[in-house]
Design a protein that fits this description.
It is a single chain. The protein is mainly β. It is 6% helix and 68% strand. It is built from two helices and 36 strands. It has a 36-stranded antiparallel beta sheet that branches. The termini are far apart.
Length: 517
């Protein structure tokens, strides 16, 4: 029984103590008067007024204290100080001790640790540890300046939520957003809604993301993209490091070079701003936009770099590696790797390259094509060079030699120069009867072939050739083809989507193995 009485007494005392702690205390005033303000009994305090409620202290020049409502109205030089971390300053304030709510008005400053908030009106809910401003506010935290129309701040988590007309400024960039959360401890900003990050060197956009103002790293999603000069980086999500000017994209990634009309796309890629360097892999597609047409290239991996030539001239070097397929409406290609130099507009194809145009096919160990005004102007074939043209049925015009130089006019082949151990098979047509009447087979060290309307028109020899002409009815199967003739139409990309399907050529896997060894 005694124990129960003691326990009840302790609980009663604790309750009374708690109620006493909730009462606002007057610690000091130079003058104390009694008045009825708005019909309510009040104490009027003048000069160096100090209140305390729990761990908060209130200072002002004058105040009204209402015992019945446990509330304060403070005037002039008002300061609320909570511990060593929170300080509120303003010209007028109201404080309700029962609900632990402070309302500060007129030229308000809030300081919490190292950050400051300047506004005209501010409410502080001590129970929720929440500060709310609603007539425009500016937050200062080191080099960062945050401005918004309204917002709120959680004192326990150090999170500012800025809403409407949000601008976060830094000496190196500015962030404009619809809604932004900024943490004063981590100095990390999170964006919710359309957001722009603008600096002298680039521009970033997203509709959801995060920016670390200490490390200058960003993670962006939802319509995220980066602009740097004439280059753009898009992706489902982007990572950006401002210190090393590096952007990285994940899923549905595109790198666009508007100055060179080039688009590289894939599911993973990165981009360095200075010096310019890009990488793309996973379902890659490189698109060169040309007048009225486009060239599409697919490969396992694509590199694009800016190279120096001399002291002033920069040029782009594009390299695509492994299982390269290219498609354009008037020409297609296949090889293991390709390189394109923008300074001389030369594309180089390595390891078993094949080119097709209309009914013509070119193969060699190495092929390069020079472009003028974005159109092929000439080409070079080295080692085991073979040109063939399908005429009809099993009939093919054929050229086989060590090296070939070819020249085009108006996108049509008009001349080839053949070097070393040249062999040709071509068919003579009776133009009146519109039928082929004979096959010519010629051998010579070097020769020059002229073309008209996609057929052989004339051949110039530099040494006397060996030749044999056969009427069509005397051509047997063993006379149809030169040695090493192969027609690769089955692996030719016939449309754009075909470049994503690599078809092995019989025997090519063994060659790849030999080359790897």
């Amino acid at each position: 029984m005694k124990f129960r009485f003691a326990l009840t007494l302790m609980l009663t005392f604790a309750t009374m103590l708690a109620l006493a702690q909730k009462k606002v205390e007057i610690l000091h005033a130079n003058t104390l008067e009694y008045s009825k303000k708005s019909g309510i009994e009040a104490k009027r305090l003048l000069g160096d007024v100090v209140f305390r409620h729990d761990e908060i202290y209130m200072f002002c020049d004058s105040a009204y204290f209402y015992d019945e409502t446990n509330s304060v109205q403070a005037y002039n030089n008002v300061r609320f100080k909570q511990g060593d971390t929170i300080l509120l300053i303003g010209k007028y304030a109201e404080y309700d001790g029962d609900i632990r709510m402070a309302k500060m008005r007129d030229s308000v400053i809030m300081q919490h640790n190292k950050s400051y908030l300047i506004t005209d009106s501010l409410d502080y809910d001590r129970d929720k540890n929440l500060i709310y401003y609603f007539e425009g506010g500016r937050m200062y935290d080191g080099e960062n300046r945050l401005r918004s129309q309204w917002g709120y701040y959680y004192t326990e988590t150090y999170d500012y939520y800025a809403v409407e007309g949000v601008v976060l400024k830094n000496p190196d960039y500015s962030i404009t957003s619809d809604t932004l959360r900024y943490n004063t401890e981590t100095e990390i900003a999170d964006f919710f809604g359309p957001t722009e990050i603008v600096s002298d060197s680039n521009y970033l956009y997203c509709e959801y993301g995060r920016y670390n103002t200490v490390t200058d790293e960003a993670n962006l999603t939802q319509n995220a993209w980066l602009q740097s000069g004439s280059n753009y980086l898009y992706g489902d999500s982007l990572y950006y490091d401002r210190k090393i000017r590096y952007g990285e994209g994940f899923r549905n990634v595109s790198i666009i070079d508007t100055s060179n009309n080039m688009i590289a796309s894939g599911n993973y890629g990165y981009f360095y701003e200075e010096p310019e360097k890009a990488f793309m892999t996973d379902s890659t597609l490189l698109t060169y936009i040309m007048d009225g047409d486009s060239l599409f290239i697919h490969a396992d991996t694509i590199f694009i770099t800016t190279e120096k030539q001399g002291d002033t001239l920069d040029f782009k070097l594009m390299r695509a590696f492994h299982k390269v397929l290219a498609f354009k409406s008037d020409g297609q290609a296949r090889c293991d790797s390709i390189a394109f130099h923008s300074n001389d507009s030369i594309a180089e194809m390595f390891y078993s390259p094949i080119m097709w145009s209309d009914n013509m096919q070119a193969t060699a160990e190495y092929i390069s094509v020079k472009f003028v005004n974005k159109e092929p102007d000439s080409f070079v074939m080295k080692n085991s060079s073979f040109l063939c043209q399908h005429i009809e049925d099993d009939y093919y015009n054929q050229i086989n030699c060590k090296n070939i130089n070819g020249y085009l006019k108006d996108k049509k082949l008009y001349r080839t120069d053949l070097f070393s151990d040249c062999q040709t098979i071509y068919y003579i047509e009776d133009e009146k009867e519109n039928e082929f009447v004979a096959q010519n087979k010629l051998l010579s060290s070097n020769m020059r072939v002229f073309y008209e309307d996609k057929t052989i028109k004339d051949i110039m020899f530099f040494e006397k050739p060996d030749g044999l002409a056969l009427p069509m009815d005397q051509i047997t199967d063993d006379k149809l083809f030169l040695k090493n003739f192969k027609w690769f139409d089955s692996v030719r990309p016939k449309e754009k989507n075909d470049i994503f399907v690599w078809k092995e050529i019989e025997g090519s896997q063994e060659k790849e193995k030999e080359r790897a060894e």
